[in-house]
Design brief:
Elements: H1 3-32, H2 37-40, H3 42-67, H4 73-93, H5 100-116
Helix pairs in contact: 1-3, 1-5, 4-5
Length: 117
């Protein structure tokens, strides 16, 4: 683990909180308020919220992966590669208009640089 991993983990925690709080406010709540019978089903609402917020839990798991001792080096490399890939996919799919892609990419690059240096 390096200082770059600690910085990346801090950014992951920030991204996790932002994802949950702002996603709920700006995306999930308005989407679930749509007057559509399918959207108004309790199961649909529960699955939508669960899916969104469980992603945040997996974010935190990756933060632990890069800061805990004795984690296999290949897993840290894979974690960094995943963040970069997700960041680039976000940038491409959102035509660089969504700030998440830049942050995801930065996190991944910090993880990879922390392993390389």
């Amino acid at each position: 683990m390096s200082v770059l991993h600690i910085i990346a983990a801090g950014l992951i925690v920030f991204a996790t909180i932002f994802h949950s709080v702002m996603g709920e406010k700006k995306l999930i709540a308005p989407t679930l308020a749509v007057d559509d019978p399918f959207i108004q089903e309790p199961m649909t609402q529960g699955i939508t919220r669960f899916g969104w917020h469980s992603a945040s839990g997996f974010f935190l798991l990756t933060a632990l992966t890069i800061v805990l001792p004795n984690v296999p080096q290949m897993l840290v490399w894979a974690t960094g590669g995943l963040w970069v890939a997700l960041g680039f996919a976000n940038l491409f799919m959102m035509k660089a208009k969504h700030p998440g892609g830049f942050l995801l990419s930065l996190i991944g690059l910090l993880i990879l640089a922390g392993e390389a240096l």
